[in-house]
Amino acid sequence: MLASKLYAPTLREVPSDADVVSQQLMLRAGFMRKVANGLYSFLPLGWRSIKKIEAIIREEMDRSGAQEVMMPILQPADIWKESGRWNAYGAEMMRINDRHDVEYCLGPTHEEMITTLVKNEINSYRQLPVNLYQIQSKFRDERRPRYGLMRSREFIMKDGYSFDIDDAAADVSYKTMYDAYSRIFTRCGLTFRPVEADSGAIGGSNTHEFMAIAEAGEADIIHCSACDYAANIEIGKPGIMKQVEEDLKELEVVDTPQASTIEAVAEMLNLPLEKTIKAVVYAIEDKVILAMVRGDHDVNEVAVQHAVNGSVEPEMATPEQLEKVGLTAGFISPVGLKQTDDFAIVVDESVMETYNVCGGANKADAHYININPKRDFNTEDIIVAPIRLITKDDVCPECHSPLEYSKGIEVGQVFKLGTKYSESLQATYLDQNGRPNAMVMGCYGIGVSRTLAAAIEQYHDENGIIWPRAIAPFEVVIVPINAKDEALMSTSTTIYDTLLNDKVDVLLDDRKDRAGVKFKDADLIGYPLRITVSKNTLESNEVEIRIRKTGEAINCPIGEVSGKVQELLSQL
After folding, report:
1. Which of 48, 186, 241, 480 has the most CB atoms less than 10 A away?
2. Whole-number average pLDDT of the chain
3. CA distance 403 to 435
4. Which residues pair with 557 in a beta bridge?
């Protein structure tokens, strides 16, 4: 490829609306362009890297025995209603009606579609196991699309689905995909960690997220300093923190004018946060959920959802919802409250082990002091569950060693779905005795475009991207110092042709721009190797090969360039 023919408009300034490094650099380096919030067009450089990631995925999927299919993006509402997810999926689903007023959605995922496909073709245990996958665009109506490709409304995803005769066979498929994913992200050059995770709207039992470790990550990961335990903080298992037992004091109301946050109350009453309890109020569908944790802890929304068997993710309750169930924002506690059909109270286990703490008095500008939950809460009207986020003061739930924290970008996830979809959609097979059984399913997803962004978040410097060799748009760029010099261009073209013949993915920067511009673009775009052809090349018969990752420059005889390039690439 010649740079003069390449459509790669670079930018010198950082776009004002670009939030994270990967978004900034992909716009500046000419990999993509923004169409609207959460929507991007890939330009040739970005698309080349996407296709390389897809090629790695296909190779490893095919190696594992999975087979590629392609299903419609547009999905009929009927199959989602049959599975029970049409209403449960929530506002992220993009729904449309055709000219006949028939309901459809733009696929956020394909569990219903693949199950419907397979159930119509498979009827015997002899046809199982089956593992099918596809790579295509998915659509989710993100409330706040941001961070470029890491949270967008349209994104490229590999999704795969396995069908087995029983749990034991499904475990084998799960392990096969887990291992394949580990190979994929290793080949893509990512630093990653598989962690235990929540299955979310997909459902199922066992699940692991593959997290690319990066400060820009939206997920908090905990991992043990001594053993292999690692988990998304949302499912980290916090222990019960007990306070030193005290004599129970008499419940008392104190004035706390305009102190509507637990921090403000603690400061006003000169209390440590652990001697307070705080309320966070959510809505799940039409039900209001009061969640209570210690003042020094944070609520785990996933745990709250599980505690009340919610079918959708919790959202913050509106003032109207608070008023409907008689709650006063900023001054809430379970004291004197009872559950109803549209109101539930969930209290963290550690709250129940507190003594003489402070919490809302359920009226404006007032708090209780000396709350003793076991005495003062209507224990028959509350749900006690571990709903706090794990903290640095907790220990590993497996070996009790100290925990460490990282930020991660979710690039893949594997699920053991069980029979959730096969039962609701009647995907059955006949066993050896002729009896029908529900197929046991697994689900496996990779965010292809997210993987691209994650690689940039992990590998960049102040000058631009530092691509892992396997997913770089080009492995090598040849930069003649002066493209108007026929001798330099002749030498550059000879090297270019040699590398092409030796199957090296190479770009010749034949533009008439100054050398400094070409060097800046090479660093910005992040080609793993840069070969500089200068006047010194003609005199010494050597070129300079610069390694983008380390900055190391190596002089190499022209006749040995191909061998040296391949040697250096094999080390990247």
Report:
1. 480
2. 93
3. 49
4. 542
| Whole-number Å distance between alpha carbons of 522 and 530 | 7
* CA atoms within a 13 Å half-sphere pointing along the CA-CB vector of 556: 24
* Under 8 Å between Cβ of 440 and 418: yes
C-alpha 431/C-alpha 435 separation (Å) is 5
* Type of residue found at 530: R
Cα four-point dihedral sign 335, 336, 339, 340? negative
Higher-confidence residue: 224 or 129? 129
The CATH number given to whatever domain includes residue 294 is: 3.90.960.10
Q: Is residue 317 part of a domain?
A: yes
The CA distance from 259 to 257, in Å, is: 5
Output the pTM of the full model: 0.85
Three state DSSP letters for 261-272: CHHHHHHHHCCC
- The parent domain of residue 209 ranges over 18-69+107-236+405-456
Residue with tokens 């962690």: 195
* Closest to 397 (Cα-Cα) out of 238, 196, 241: 238
Sign (positive/negative) of CA torsion 544, 473, 511, 460?
negative
**Could you identify the residue written with the tokens 């040995």?**
560
* Residue 305 dihedral angles phi and psi, to the nearest 5°: -60, -45
Looking at the structure, tell me whether residues 520 and 556 fall in a common domain: yes
Same structural domain, 548 and 489: yes
Helix ranges (DSSP H) in 229-346 = 262-269, 301-307, 319-324
Q: SS3 of 94, please? A: strand
Three-class SS of 456-512: HHHCEECCEECCCHHHCCCCEEEEECCCCCHHHHHHHHHHHHHHHHCCCCEEECCCC
Which pair of structure tokens corresponds to residue 197?
Answer: 């995770």
The answer, yes or no, to whether residue 24 has pLDDT greater than 70, is: yes
CATH number of residue 502's parent domain: 3.40.50.800
CATH number at residue 48: 3.30.930.10
What is the rounded average pLDDT of the residues 37-41? 94
Q: Tokens 């102040």 — which residue?
A: 462
Angle CA(442)–CA(444)–CA(445) in degrees, nearest 5? 155
Q: Is 98 within the bounds of a domain?
A: no
Average pLDDT of the segment spanning 173-179? 96
Same domain flag for 320 and 375: yes
> Are residues 71 and 110 in contact, defined by beta-carbon separation less than 8 angstroms?
yes
Please say which residue of 331, 354, 385 terminates a domain. Answer: 385
Pairing of strands 277-284, 130-139: unpaired
Q: Which class for 22: exposed (0-12), middle (13-18), buried (19 or more C-beta within 10 A)?
A: buried
- Mean pLDDT (whole number) for 6-15: 91
What does R_g of the chain's alpha carbons equal in angstroms? 29
Average pLDDT for residues 407-420, to the nearest whole number? 93
Residue identified by tokens 């050398």 is 515
